[in-house]
Amino acid sequence: MRRDPSPRAGHPPASGEHIDGRLDRQRGGATVLLLATGLVFVVFGTFGAAVVAAGMASQRAAVAADLGALAGAARALDGEAAACASASDLAVRNDGRLVGCHLDGMDVLVTVEVAFTPLPGLTRVATASARAGPVRG
């Protein structure tokens, strides 16, 4: 009976090695594929969240502009300064910043900006305008 001169005779192959002693270059491929798939999900999730944040900021700006215009229209008889001060107060209460206000007859036109951060270190601004005044008919 002949003995195998290999010191590992009778033992299973070492990690990354075939039975005949060659290295298995395919080992760990599933791990790399899983990590790449996870990274793709993280990237798409991050950009999806950024798109949603932009949409929400746009809606917040529109609401702040609408409410600001209504508040300004309620004070239109007191003059442009009072109307715009009232519009600014409501815009600030809705996390916005009044960047434009104009009294056109009895109508108040306002423009509001809302700042948001879609990605860390990246700040953007959503802008909306609104007009309010008495009913004409």
Task: Write a brief structural summary.
The chain has 137 residues and is an alpha+beta fold. Helices cover 44% and strands 23% of the residues.
Structural write-up:
With 137 residues, the chain is an alpha+beta fold. Helices cover 44% and strands 23% of the residues. It is built from two helices and three strands, in the order ααβββ. Strands 1-2-3 form a three-stranded antiparallel sheet. β2 and β3 (122-132) form a beta hairpin. α1 runs antiparallel to α2. The longest helix is centred in the middle third of the chain and has 46 residues, at 29-74. The mean pLDDT is 86.
Average pLDDT: 86
Helical residue percent? 40-55%
> How many beta strands in the DSSP annotation?
3
What order do the helices and strands follow?
Answer: HHEEE
Distance between the termini: 112 Å
**Into which percentage range does the β-strand content fall?**
15-25%
Task: Give the spatial strand order of the biggest sheet.
Answer: 1-2-3
Secondary-structure-derived class: alpha+beta
The Cα radius of gyration reads 33 Å
The best one-word shape is rod-shaped
How many helix segments?
Answer: 2
Q: Which spans have pLDDT < 50 for at least 5 consecutive residues?
A: none
Major sheet description: 3 strands, antiparallel
